[in-house]
């Protein structure tokens, strides 16, 4: 699916297993927060590699964590594509106390010292633009790093430094 410069890879196309239960709708819609994390996995540079990483993340979230589905609303790969996790308008399982009022986007890879690819950042920006344009994200949304809202290194120092330079980044919720 090609939309406004971001290509979305559907759940069918990345080989998702069905969720254990359908996700609940967001309590605040459009959500005022976009929360950026990283998967803390190996990075990926091709659609085949990225789809595999997303399948592994889903399996870990369902079988390891006992969640109903992959925790993120979307993921972005080093291939420059956006992978549909739970999708728009539904509660994720990524940031305690914020799942009902945010969209969670996870960068596939580990970004403590390594920066994400330009294509990955472009995919995030275009995905957020699309969300705002379609009324799926509040126009005055706050962009936050996962670590600002919970005890974690995510999204990694290198990615967090980049987030802090973006127009919607907010130091406080």
Properties at a glance:
173 residues, alpha/beta, Lysozyme-like, seven-stranded mixed beta sheet, 16% strand, globular
Question: Can you tell me about this structure?
Answer:
The protein has 173 residues and is an alpha/beta fold. The protein has one domain: Lysozyme-like. 26% of the residues lie in helices and 16% in strands. It contains 4 helices and 7 strands, in the order ββαβαβββαβα. The protein has helices at 11-14, 47-64, 118-133, 157-163, and strands at residues 2-3, 6-9, 33-38, 74-76, 82-84, 102-107, 142-145. A hairpin with a 2-residue loop joins strand 1 (2-3) and strand 2.
Give the gist of this structure.
This protein is an alpha/beta fold and 173 residues long.
Secondary structure elements and pairings:
Elements: E1 2-3, E2 6-9, H1 11-14, E3 33-38, H2 47-64, E4 74-76, E5 82-84, E6 102-107, H3 118-133, E7 142-145, H4 157-163
Family: Belongs to the N-acetylmuramoyl-L-alanine amidase 2 family.
GO molecular function: N-acetylmuramoyl-L-alanine amidase activity; peptidoglycan binding; zinc ion binding
Protein name: Peptidoglycan-recognition protein
């Amino acid at each position: 699916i090609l939309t406004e410069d971001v290509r979305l890879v559907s759940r069918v196309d990345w080989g998702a297993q069905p969720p254990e239960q359908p996700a609940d709708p967001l309590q605040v819609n459009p959500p005022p927060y976009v929360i950026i994390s990283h998967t803390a996995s190996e990075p990926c540079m091709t659609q085949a590699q990225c789809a595999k990483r997303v399948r592994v993340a889903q399996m870990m979230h369902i079988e390891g964590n006992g969640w109903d589905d992959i925790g993120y609303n979307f993921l972005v790969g080093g291939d420059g594509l956006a992978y549909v996790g739970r999708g728009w308008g539904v509660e994720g399982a990524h940031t305690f106390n914020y799942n009902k009022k945010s969209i969670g986007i996870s960068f596939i890879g580990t970004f403590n010292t390594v920066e994400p690819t330009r294509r990955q950042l472009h995919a995030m920006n275009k995905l957020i633009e699309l969300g705002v344009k379609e009324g799926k994200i509040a126009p005055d949304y706050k962009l936050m790093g996962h670590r600002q809202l919970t005890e974690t290194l995510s999204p990694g120092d290198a990615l967090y430094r980049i987030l802090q330079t973006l127009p919607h980044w907010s130091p406080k919720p």
